[in-house]
Amino acid sequence: MTRASRRGPYICGIEAALDVVSGKWKGQILWELAVHGVRRFAELRRGLPGVSEKMLAQHLREMEEDGLVHREVHAEVPPRVEYSLTEHGRTLNQALGPLGVWGVERMRREGSETVDAAESSHG
Amino acid sequence: MTRASRRGPYICGIEAALDVVSGKWKGQILWELAVHGVRRFAELRRGLPGVSEKMLAQHLREMEEDGLVHREVHAEVPPRVEYSLTEHGRTLNQALGPLGVWGVERMRREGSETVDAAESSHG
DNA sequence: TGCGGTGCTTACCTTTTCGTAAGGGGGATC
DNA sequence: GATCCCCCTTACGAAAAGGTAAGCACCGCA
Lengths: 123, 123
Description:
The first copy, chain A, is α+β, with helices and mostly antiparallel strands. The first copy, chain A, has helices spanning 13-21, 26-36, 41-47, 53-65, 87-95, 97-110, and strands at residues 38-40, 69-74, 80-85. Chain A has a 3-stranded antiparallel sheet. Chain A binds a DNA duplex through residues 2, 4-5, 23-24, 40-42, 45, 52-58, 73, 77-81.
């Protein structure tokens, strides 16, 4: 797993925060959950074009460990698993707001191809 | 280099911003430059315990490419190279503020060892 | 004459991350 | 009865990131 560097002693808050969001899909997962409130595994999968089941499951597990995501398993058939943000996940999302705005500015500066949804920065 | 994924088409601003700060030492480099204004290579090296010359040079070059860092070479003997933040670097640093605060909160929550300077979150 | 400081670069190797493909157990659907 | 959906897990391998060590060109200092 990625436990080697994670949760290391951090020099500053930025490190501690980046450690939790660094991961190819974590930003988008945070976004999806912030926008939709509650999402099932397959819904997230469809919302993140290109993600593999392995990476999605892995990221979700790490984010759960980090206290960002709440995972609720309904003992049904077929099994239903619902993901949502915890309070910490929501505050993280808010803390990411300014960064998202900065990112949109950067995209604008570089004239990089913007995918339609980018306008909202992060929620 | 890391050009493979960098500057890819981004889905949201967060991605565009994270792309620029993700890197083991970039947060701390940003911090050092924000605190001290101008720093020489060897000063940065001393300010980032554990960093190798290779990684420092590589990160600085990437951050220069990304328009965050200004590099000024003085044609002297011995050569003197000074690094400072550009305007974009400074605004990025500001955008990271809330994230740093969140990170400090997280460190506090987890009772992780805090290195003294962590109190200031990121400047 | 040799060492240390300046600001890097290069080669090589390990660690971490990500992707691909497959399987699995149970139920519903065709 | 075959296939699809659900939510994953495992095994394997490629790519990216990071670390180690050495070298370089020049100079001041002892």
